[in-house]
Structure formats: C-alpha cells, structure tokens
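#struct-help
A.M.: can someone run this one for me? Single chain, 315 residues.
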Amino acid sequence: MECRQILLCLALYVVCTLSKPTEKKDRVHHDPQLSDKVHDDGENFDYDHDAFLGTEDAKTFDQLTPEESKERLGKIVNKIDEDKDGFVTAEELKNWIKFSQKRWIYEDVDRQWKGHDLNEDGLISWEEYKNATYGYILDDPDPEDGFNYKQMMTRDERRFKLADKDGNLIATKEEFTAFLHPEEYDYMKDIVVLETMEDIDKNGDGFIDLEEYIGDMYSHEGDPQEPEWVKTEREQFVEFRDKNKDGKMDKEETKDWIMPSDYDHAEAEAKHLVYESDQDKDGKLTKEEVVNKYDLFVGSQATDFGEALVRHDEF
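D.P.: on it. Structure tokens below:
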C-alpha cells in the first residue's frame, strides 16, 4: 500500500503541475546563484566561501579553528585535482564549484538509488525502475484515481532509454542521474524541451502558440482583467520568443526560452579564486597556494571572529 500511496501523491503533484495556475509558472532552467551574499572581498569572503563549499558546508567551516580549516581544505584540494598532476586549474576549480552547488542533486540520486537498485548490483535496469516505481498498479486496468500511469511510464521509458548511453536498458549511477535530472546534461536537453512542449502544446500540432504559452502560466478563472505580468509575457512571446515571427514556437525557439545561455557564475568565480591565490602567476594553483589563502576559500572561526570585530568597531 505504501508504494500505491506514493504514486497517488505523485499523480496529484503531476496533475497540479500540469494544471493552469493563477500564479506565474517558470519553465526556464537557470543555474542557481552561487550565494545570496554580496560579492565584496573588501568587506568579507562570505560569497567565496558559499561558492566554493556550498552554503551548508560553509557554515561548518566557520566553526573550525584555522588549523582544522587548512587541514580539511588540503583534503579538498586533492579531490579538485582531477588529473593528479599536483596543480588545480581554473577548469578543475569550476567543475568543483558546480559540484558543490549541485550536491543536492547527487544526494537525491543516492536516496532514489537505494529504492530502485532492487538486486543491489550497482546498476538499475529499466525493469527494476519500472517495477519499483509502478509495480502492481500497472496490473489495475482502472485505477481508483483515474490517473493514466501507463502514459507516465511510457514517458519515463523514453527518457530512460535516452539517458542510457550504451542502449542496454541498464543505467549506471551517472546515467540514472541524467534520467532523474536531465536538465543537468547536454545530451539530455532535447528531451527536456520535448517534454515541455508536450505539456504546453494542447492542440498537438508540435508547436507552442501564444494562447498555449499564456495558458500554461495563467488562467483567467472568471477574472476578465489580465495582470500586468501576463501582458508583459504576451509581448515577450511576440517580440523575443517567436524569433521567426510565424506566431508559434518551434523546438529551437522553445529551447532558447527554457534553456538560455546564462552567464557562467562558476567559471567567473573559479577565475577569481585563481587570480587571487596564484602567487607565482603561472595560471594554476598548488596545494600550498590554496591553503595559504584558506581565508578566501573556506574561512574559519578566526576569520568569522575577525569580521565580528570589524562590525563591532563600526557599530
């Protein structure tokens, strides 16, 4: 029964997600901000700490002594150095920052992995996923809630096959991550676009017209007066979304809308950290160079206490 209850909740979530909300729905996939703090190294390094460690781990380092912070930072440097050549490049640092910022994704995958790897062989087959997710509910031709689980399963199978690079219908952990979070992988972005278009394209012509675009975000619900943001979205559709001015969005136009080419905050932060720490100016960092600037990367009780003293003096 527990599996069925979970699926019923999932069905309600999907129905609510696909229904027409009165609040604006955001279909656009943006990389999250590295920190909600102001990036001002003249004031403090809080932004850099959040960017390098992730917000929660940054709080942990604030409780450590300088010696403990340096020791832990040294271990992190070993992980960042992907090719083990003794140096950290801006590219390796960018990859680490992106990993730190998206750690919640990997934690989510770890949780789901345990529930789907039924034979505990370190792989998840489509059959395992299907049985763990849908199970005996698929044997019920007329489910009580009336939700079309087979349609959901067909969509899942299509995405699973795309995530499964070698086509054996068995997913490694990386492939399973791509299945659960396709927006994070370049080779999965087309399926994100396709699924979005299928959700919005109510007349099934393979395009998104203006009314479908607005209808996905807003429902009048008896109110003849559209909010200003809806009028703005109509203008956005006509002026920017519909690039070829044919009155509808095709696949490429939809992709440009929901997956814009954003400014790469992780790359900018990586270059900033290298610039500030690269004592010999060779364009890469040794472990010693990173640890020497530990207050920039991770902080400690000492840096946190120092900031408190500054604020106290200003007060």
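A.M.: thanks! The radius of gyration is 24 Å.
D.P.: also worth noting: DSSP finds 17 helices and four strands in the chain.
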